[in-house]
Amino acid sequence: MPLIYKICPLPLWREAEAAGRLDGAPVDLADGFIHFSTASQLAETAAKHFSGQDNLLLIAVDETALGDALRYEPSRGGALFPHLYGPLPLSAVRSVAPLATGPGGGHVFPDSIKG
């Protein structure tokens, strides 16, 4: 199963659990889609948008469960990033794990993430 990933602040995830769906972070709502990353894009996404932030979760999502609402579109440097046009149904989530911060302030991704 192909997975895509969302880095999510814990309070936003708690709201999603209560609602049964994730509508997105403020940047997602402003852009009109929910931003995701592939495994190979995660480290750069974390460094660019979440540097120095704690209390984050790494949400793994089965991209096939999202259907036509998921589109890969050019973003940073022309790389194709997964964008979800609509809310993320929690039924598509395959795992939720804390995203640790390492000694240098960068985020530490699980060994299971192959980039």
From TrEMBL:
InterPro entries on file: DUF952 (IPR009297)
SUPFAM superfamilies, per database record: ADP-ribosylation
One matching Pfam family: DUF952
Domain of life the protein comes from: Bacteria
PANTHER family: BLR1139 PROTEIN, DUF952 DOMAIN-CONTAINING PROTEIN
Name of this chain's protein: DUF952 domain-containing protein
Organism: Methylobacterium terrae
